[in-house]
Amino acid sequence: MTITKPDALVLDMDGTLWDAVDTYTWCWNEAFKEISDPTVLKREDLLKLMGKPIDEIMRNVTSGMTSEEREKFVNRVHEIETRELPVRGGKLFDGVKDGIEKLSKKYRLFLLSNCEKGQLPIFARFAGIENYISGCISFGDTHLQKGENMRLLQQQFQLKNPVYIGDTDGDGIQTRLAGWSFAFVRYGFGSTDHFDLAFDSFSELTDYFMNLS
């Protein structure tokens, strides 16, 4: 399948550009320890929730907490992640850094994720790609679903034909709601049939868009 050449590529973070689930798991467990909660999360516990908004993840993981307790807890998790992510970071998927540099010469690149406020800039700095990114928006910035954030980004930067690149079924559904084309990366955390293009590696994705005329 082919698509019309885009004027911008908008990229998801977790499962598309890197895997930081081990760091997230460590941070959450530290927060549980601080409040003497016996909960111990495993990587698989968070992995199956990746891509969902943080409030939905919280409801799944902290079902026994009151709304007030949950709010305090999520704030503490965010504080720990803000401290630890720049240090512990995550593992970039193969081809991401070189691919981003190449793609930036032909397209405007943006980051859009369901992560917490401030995490996209942390990721960009850790990955060494901040100079190639034209802008970013997250659930933590707006508390809106991805489709709504896509429309906000499109309006803010006057994008004509953006493509979203992600790794979950939710990404595909939200991209459809925004009226964009969706490129699915099969190596990520999820699966979907809601895509216009699909790639087995970031290098394959890079080659496709670099050769698109």
Could you outline the blueprint of secondary structure elements for this entry?
Blueprint: E1 8-11, E2 18-19, H1 21-34, H2 43-47, H3 54-61, H4 67-88, E3 91-92, H5 96-103, E4 108-113, H6 119-127, E5 135-138, H7 139-142, H8 146-157, E6 162-166, H9 169-178, E7 181-185, E8 197-199, H10 202-210
Parallel strand pairs: 1-4, 1-6, 4-5, 6-7, 7-8
Antiparallel strand pairs: 2-3
Helix pairs in contact: 1-4, 4-6, 5-10, 8-9
Helix content percent band: 40-55%
Give the CATH superfamily of the largest domain.
Answer: HAD superfamily/HAD-like
Largest sheet features: 6 strands, parallel
The structural domain count equals 2
Globular, elongated, flat, extended or rod-shaped: what is the shape? Answer: globular
The poorly predicted ranges are none
CATH class identity of the largest domain: Alpha Beta
- Which sequence of strands runs across the widest sheet? 5-4-1-6-7-8
The termini sit apart by 14 Å
Radius of gyration: 17 Å
Q: Quickly count the helices.
A: 10
Strand % is: 5-15%
Order of helices and strands, N to C? Answer: EEHHHHEHEHEHHEHEEH
Mean pLDDT: 95
CATH second-level architecture of the largest domain: 3-Layer(aba) Sandwich
Q: What is the tally of beta strands?
A: 8
- In CATH, the topology of the largest domain is named Rossmann fold
Structural class: alpha/beta
